[in-house]
């Protein structure tokens, strides 16, 4: 029996986008929310490779340079630490490649970027039933139970945005 080939990690390229979009949709299916995922190839291409990209990506590739996993991330900023950090939006490794070290290498790549650039944090959220919790604990990641996530979207987001427009429309404003 041969050992599984450890994927190589590299920055995402424009030609990787269709595979990454497909894996994002696979992730949405895994997280039981396929109807909530609307990402297109054009959207991801623009976000990663447009005029002023604010999203970054790395892929795990097999021996034929085919993406088999990815990490999409962006910079955040800690006002308390006074420096940037990385927020990992999504990490996914295709089931056939799990156990090869691809996920660990993707996270290690982001950790290395943090260390090289003087960033103090690498952060992400995980759905509470994901079995990756044990893996994350094994690499020293800490669950942040004292912080509660909030989200404003849909009608609530539009309603709140309308308040600023209403104020701006007042006379003498």
Low-confidence stretches: none
Q: Summarize the helix and strand pattern as letters.
A: EHHEEEHEHH
Helix-strand makeup class: alpha+beta
| β-strand number | 5
| First-residue to last-residue Cα separation | 74 Å
Shape: globular
Major sheet strand order = 1-2-3-4-5
- CATH class value: Alpha Beta
Tell me roughly what share of residues is in helical segments.
Answer: 25-40%
**Beta-strand content bin:** 15-25%
Architecture (CATH level 2) name: 3-Layer(aba) Sandwich
CATH fold descriptor: Aminopeptidase
Number of separate structural domains: 1
Biggest β-sheet description: 5 strands, mixed
Fourth-level CATH superfamily:
Gcn5-related N-acetyltransferase (GNAT)
Work out the radius of gyration.
19 Å
Keywords: Acyltransferase, Transferase
Family: Belongs to the acetyltransferase family.
Organism: Micromonospora profundi
Protein name: GNAT family N-acetyltransferase
């Amino acid at each position: 029996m041969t050992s599984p080939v450890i994927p190589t990690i590299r920055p995402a390229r424009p030609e990787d986008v269709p595979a990454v979009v497909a894996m994002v949709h696979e992730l949405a299916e895994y997280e039981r929310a396929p109807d909530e995922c609307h990402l297109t190839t054009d959207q991801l291409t623009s976000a990663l490779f447009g005029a002023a990209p604010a999203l970054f990506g790395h892929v795990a590739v097999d021996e034929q340079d085919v993406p088999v996993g990815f990490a999409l991330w962006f910079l955040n900023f800690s006002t308390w630490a006074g420096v940037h950090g990385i927020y990992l939006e999504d990490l996914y490794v295709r089931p056939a490649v799990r156990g090869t070290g691809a996920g660990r290498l993707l996270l290690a790549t982001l950790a290395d970027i943090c260390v090289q650039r003087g960033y103090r944090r690498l952060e992400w959220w995980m759905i509470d039933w994901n079995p990756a919790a044990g893996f994350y604990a094994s690499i020293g990641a800490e669950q942040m139970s004292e912080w509660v996530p909030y989200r404003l979207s849909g009608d609530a987001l539009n309603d709140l945005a309308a308040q600023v427009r209403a104020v701006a429309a007042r006379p003498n404003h």
